[in-house]
Amino acid sequence: MSENPKSRILVIGAGCVGVITGYHLSLAGADVTFLVRPHRAEELKRPQVLYCYEDNELKEYEGYTYITDPLQVIGANYDYIVIALDGASLRNEVGRELAETIGEAARQTNTKVILGSIFVDLRTWFLEVSGLAGKQVTNGHLDIHVYPTKRLTLPSQPPIDPELIAKADFAYSDKLPEGFSVDDSAPAVANGFTEIYNACGISRCAVKSAAEYAVGINPMLPVFAACELLGWPKFQDIGNKGEIWSLTVAAVKEIQGLSIHGELGQQASAETTEAGLAAALAAWEKHMVPLDLQEFNRFHHSLKLKSQGREHLYLCLSYGEAEGKPMSALKELLQRVDHPQTATV
């Protein structure tokens, strides 16, 4: 009896999200190919070195292949395409062309797409641009905390070994209950991908309802905007930030209450409090030790993905206003962040 053939998975992008996702899929036995820009291909010619916070060891990731021309995707008939680009990059002109190419490649095939970009209501946009059937596309994101060691040096404490981290391309911590999450917008896609990922044996993918998935992500962006305004304080101290924190929590509740989040969002909005949200963030921060969570967030949400965060919040604002909601807290928070000289901490 022949063995089941390996799943053929294309990962678009080989940055933090792409490489760590590809690594776990390779451990699961998948045949992983990266689609990257030509300059990134040079770096992929050698194995990628990964530092794991949990066992304080280096991993060597090899055995993947890569392509640089999006047109090579057409006719390749991958089982899955995982888009590991940030939401702003996917929605720009080049990203839109890529989405159209993915649509051409996957339309009327069995190829399934994991939309691993974080952006409010992105699946609706992607389905429209790609022309793919809804049953082929679901949302997903990497929950593992990963950063490029050549661009970011985090404070370290025992047992973390900074000399080993310096030898790595990426460092990561997989301390949350899930290493990857997908929603059930396309149940067959979500369940099939989860089965593959979980075969890696060292990390876990979870399927969440579309509402739970969205409510867990979209309202976090006002928190990161406020952290930028406040100079990235520790989460354990964020509940003491007076008016700015009150404004931030009000903005979070406005986003939770958007109609795209359904009844679950309405419930979350009613239950969210300043003290409760501050406590949840502080617990996240404590759980991630020895990784310095706020320095990690500063890099990803201020230096790296600042434009994505802004676009995300302004789109939430437009959604709320289209529903006839004043969105006064989110509007004021954006005004403060865009013009920090007007802020009062």
Written overview of the protein:
The chain has 345 residues and is an alpha/beta fold. Helices cover 47% and strands 15% of the residues. It has 15 helices and 12 strands. The protein has an 8-stranded mixed β-sheet, with helices on both faces. Helix 5 links the parallel strand 7 and strand 8.
Going across the biggest sheet, name each strand in turn. 5-2-1-6-7-8-11-12
Number of helices: 15
Pattern of helices and strands: EHEHEEEEHHEHEEHEEHEHHHHHHHH
**Main beta-sheet annotation:** 8 strands, mixed
Task: Give a nutshell description of this structure.
The chain has 345 residues and is α/β, with parallel strands linked by helices. It has helices at 16-27, 38-44, 87-91, 93-106, 122-130, 162-167, 187-198, 210-217, 221-230, 242-256, 262-271, 274-288, 293-304, 306-322, 328-338; strands at residues 8-12, 31-35, 48-52, 57-61, 65-67, 80-83, 112-115, 137-142, 145-148, 170-173, 180-183, 205-208. It is built from 15 helices and 12 strands.
Which features would summarize this protein structure in a list?
345 residues, alpha/beta, eight-stranded mixed beta sheet, four-stranded mixed beta sheet, 15 helices, 12 strands, 47% helix, globular
